[in-house]
Amino acid sequence: MAKFMLLAFRNVFRNRRRTMMTLFMVGGGVAGLLLVGGFFSFMFWGLRESTINGGLGHIQIFTADHFNRDEVRVLDTGIDNWRQVAATVKTGGHVRGVAPRIEFYGMVSNGDKSSVFMGSAVDPDAESSMGFTTHFASGRNLDGKPGGEVEALIGAGLAKSMNVKVGDGLTLLAMTSDGALNGVDVQIVGIVVSGVAEMDARSLRITLPAAQRLLQSDRVTNLVVGLDETENTDQVSAELSPRLLGLPQKLVLKKWIDLATYYKQVRSLFSMIFIFLGVIVFFMVLMSSVNTLLMTMFERTREIGTMLAMGTPRAWIVLLFMVEATLIGILGAIVGLVAGNMLGILLNHSGIHLPPPPGNTVPMSFKVLHVPSLMIGSSLLVIVSLALASILPAIRASRLQIAEALSHV
Amino acid sequence: MDEIVNVEAVSRRFPLDDSPAHHPAHSFVSALSNASLRVSAGEFLAISGPSGSGKTTLLNLIGCIDQPTSGCIHVDGVDTSKLSPTAMATLRREKIGFVFQTFNLIPVFTAAENVEFPLLIQGIPSGERRERVAEALESVGLTARAQQRPDLLSGGERQRVAVARAIVHRPSLVLADEPTANLDTHNATQLIDLMHGLNRRLGLTFIFSTHDARLLEHTERIVRLCDGQVVSDSSSKGVSCG
After folding, report:
1. pLDDT of residue B25
2. Would you say residue B32 lies in a domain?
């Protein structure tokens, strides 16, 4: 068998120019997939981390009722004893911090104009301790210290529509947990940009105590848990679930992936695009390799006839062609892996930025991740493609009429 | 002596692709017509005749790489007309050695590897293969050129490698189709002498085709073909004229 493999290996380099062209084609396919897949992976990674660090966190804790029914009154499905829950969660491994949140909505007015807002009440210290980032168009973050004016951050779109700037005052109106209307004056300390225009047109953020005063409730909507690494999410979630069972309120854990709808949609869309590209590369390699291998077969007709005349089993001829094609696939994959990774390194150091995607306002870095599973997958794709491409030439070679093959010129 | 080949009233016709459908009688060409031949083990036999006389067709039929349209052929006692393609391949692999006009060596293999190939496909262990390859190359005087690839060998050397490849698996029968056609007179004479020597020394049966009159002088038995028919046989036995 070693000799047989040697024959296949030497046959690969028989027509060096043609083999080089095939290797470039196969390698180009692999490199292309690595670059596109690596860029998509970078995009997924960036979107994942920005989604998590933008405030989603790795895990969120809600009451079970939050998902079972709509709130009749503000915060009536909120967490009562959230300080106890937060303390329990903080004792777990890999937990960087726990931040309470209240999600609410209401009207915001500057005296001349009113608009709907989607409010979020946060503990600024807890949020920053978990590394959650806020992008400011102007101003600063909320101050967690009690007392003084109620501070607010508003989205850039909302600030524009309300015609306000940092230092201006606004009035917030919202329903309390008792169903009454309550209001609070706030001072804008910062204008934020989330990257999503629709979000910036409605978002408003105040501190947790201010929101609890406005809504007349000590409850919070949820607790956001930040971890040291995103990869630890499943492990921490599995460890936390049983520990929350002993608490008075029935609570549920939601991992970031369950809540990141936009991330999932983007990933799903781009995964389909990548699969489509993979299919194109697969057929491109397949069709051009069939042509090359058929040419090889015709050139070696007399040699195949000689081998068959000597009594070589026809299955050996099939195997020989398939092994040769598979070897080309393996060599092409190696060429592609080297080229793809080197180009990836070059691109990563080029500092190229892409224009913001639709609905976003921030330009995107053009970077490529080196993903081992992508390297294995792309390599297997072209190797299988080459092996399949060899079937037709291999079968035709094995079915040659010996007498005709021997007289082939 | 034992009979190694028995060709009985064999005909071989080839269909013509461009023959008119309404003339079935003209839809084929007859390469061999009612030919008969008996060859004993250890014979050194030349098949002679002009181009198109059916020499290659007859060798192909004896070598089990083609099947007759009618008649039957026995090789080493086996009726080849009743064999499946796989059984024919096995027969060729084990009992027949081939030498071709254009040498037909595998260009990416060395001389030794080319000679080794018939043993490889028989599944003979590597140690034994090495010994037999060395023996075969020695018998054709090419031990020193064992590691050269065919493109570095002269025409005469290539054909001697082909002979070594044909005898390495100790076949009952060696078939050579115009083995000297691509060689100059000196190399051709050397090759015939080599084949003759192997025939005498090892008792191998050689059947080769040629239309080179100079080479026929070295041959004890000459079968002449003309228009697909055996027209003469220099030995008294087995003569059959169609």
Report:
1. 58
2. no
Domain that holds residue A350: 2-51+263-406
Tell me how many domains chain B contains: 1
**pLDDT value for B12:** 93
Q: Are residues A47 and A79 in the same domain?
A: no
Task: Spell out which chain A residues touch chain B, with contact meaning CB-CB distance below 8 angstroms.
Answer: 3-4, 6-7, 10-11, 14, 302-303, 305-314, 316, 402-403, 406-407
Q: Which of B66, B85, B98 sits opposite A310 (nearest CB)?
A: B98
Residue among A14, A308, A316 whose CB faces B108 most closely: A14
Residue for token digits 């009594």?
Answer: A311
> How many structural domains compose chain A?
2
Nearest to B106 among A303, A314, A406 (CB): A303
Domain that holds residue B206: 44-64+85-233
Label residue B212 by pLDDT band (50, 70, 90). Answer: confident
CA distance A283 to A381: 10
> Is B91–A311 a contact, with Cβ atoms under 8 angstroms apart?
yes
Q: Which of B103, B117, B209 to mutate to test the interface with A (most CBs of A within 10 A)?
A: B117
CATH code at B161? 3.40.50.300
Provide, rounded to the nearest whole percent, the portion of chain B with pLDDT above 90: 62
- Cα distances from B27 to residues A401, B17, B20, B55, B68, in angstroms, run 20, 8, 7, 22, 17
Domain finish residue from A218, A249, A280: A249
Q: Would you call B93 and A310 a contact, using CB atoms and an 8 Å cutoff?
A: yes
Question: B93 at the A interface (CB within 8 A)?
Answer: yes
Q: What is the ipTM of this complex?
A: 0.90
Whether pLDDT at A359 is above 60:
no
Within 8 A by CB and 6+ apart from A253, the residues are A59, A60, A61, A237, A240, A241, A244
pLDDT beyond 50 at B90: yes
Starting from the edge strand earliest in sequence, which strands make up the sheet with B229-233, in order?
B96-99, B173-177, B205-210, B44-48, B221-226, B229-233
Report strand pairing: A181-192 vs A150-155. Answer: parallel
CB pairs under 8 A between A and B: 66
Same domain, A183 and A286: no
For the residues A239-259, what does the mean pLDDT come to? 86
Check: pTM over 0.80? Answer yes or no.
no
pLDDT at A81: 86
pLDDT tens-place string over residues B54-68? 999 999 999 999 999
